[in-house]
Amino acid sequence: MDSGGEYSGVLAEVFSRARPMGGEKIRFRCECAYDGTDFCGWQSQKGGGSVQDFIEERLGRIFKEPVRIHGSGRTDAGVHATGQVFHFDAAWSHPDGALLAALRSSNRADVRIKSLKRVGKDFHARYGAKGKRYVYYMHRGVALPHLARYRWSLRGRDPDPEKMAAAAELLTGEHDFTAFSASRGADARENPVKTLSRLEVVSRGAEMRVVAEGSGFMYKMVRMLVGALVDVGTGRLDEGDIREILASKKRGNYFQAAPAQGLFLQRVFY
Fold first, then answer.
1. Which of 244, 265, 200 is nearest to 35 (CA)?
2. pLDDT at res. 184
3. pLDDT of 2 over the 50 cut
4. How far is the C-alpha of 2 from the C-alpha of 97, rounded, in Å?
5. Average pLDDT over residues 45-56
6. Are strands 70-71 and 131-139 parallel, antiparallel or unpaired?
7. What residues act catalytically?
8. What's the sign of the alpha-carbon dihedral 201, 203, 209, 213?
9. CA-CA distance, 251 to 210, in Å (whole number)?
10. Are strands 263-269 and 80-90 parallel, antiparallel or unpaired?
11. How far is it, in rounded angstroms, from Cα 202 to Cα 164?
């Protein structure tokens, strides 16, 4: 439901309010999708420009006061989402559909609030998440313009999906994935042992994708995994190299991370 129809009067009232709404605060769980091309990532930045900044600006207009949202986790600049989850607390005396319509009322087309519902105060979008599913899309050759911002165009590379799948099996399960992550200050305190329950390579014609599902992911981990698998598929690396790199538990210049534009956060599990 968008900003017109039965909620148009409520929306006019909401946006004309001069002071914050009173009453007990309610926790709302939302799911959103976004095209990350023109954003600097999910997480709020000092200069703005993130998905979080945009949504918080919308909520600030609705509630006439700052409203902080809490996402299930970060996505980096250029990364997309079809199932990012966040929550926020706010007092709201109108139908929930009106709040959803108000959040959707922006003219910006690259963010879509898919759903909104009331949840208990014990729900937390980040700390309650049990796992995530990412999908990385690739295209043999050069993708057409309407797809190029959502695919990694492999151009002259033609990776063997069977070799990639065999290497993916070696990476499935519980491992220390330090060698398949990039350095980010706060990550020094993160446990590098993750359980990768699914790492699947799907190839149909010119289109390829890698589905990664697990308990958690380190900084750039999915993009690093994809970069390594493509190198195996093209013969630059082999299964023995993957075993050695994984066992090293050290970051290095073994392979390059796949570009951001092919990556989607598809689902968060609770």
1. 265
2. 75
3. no
4. 9
5. 95
6. unpaired
7. 76
8. negative
9. 22
10. parallel
11. 10
Look-up of token digits 């105060």:
121
Confidence of residue 185 (pLDDT cuts 50, 70, 90): low
DSSP bridge partners of 152: 138
For 200, the enclosing helix (H) or strand (E) is strand 193-204
Place of tokens 């990412």: 134
Residue pLDDT, tens place only, 143-167: 999 999 999 999 999 999 999 999 9
Residue 181 CA: distances (Å) to CA of 35, 224, 228: 23, 6, 11
Residue that is written with structure tokens 């990639």 in the block? 164
The residue type found at 258 is: A
Tell me how far apart the alpha carbons of residues 83 and 134 are, in angstroms, rounded to a whole number: 10
Residue 207: strand pairing partners: 139, 204
For residue 20, pLDDT beyond 60: no
Q: What is the predicted pLDDT for the residue at 22?
A: 65
Q: Which of 211, 206, 175, 205 shows the shortest CA–CA distance to 193?
A: 175
* Cβ pair 212, 133 in contact under 8 A: yes
Bridge partners of residue 7, in order along the sequence:
none
Arithmetic mean of pLDDT, 48-54:
97
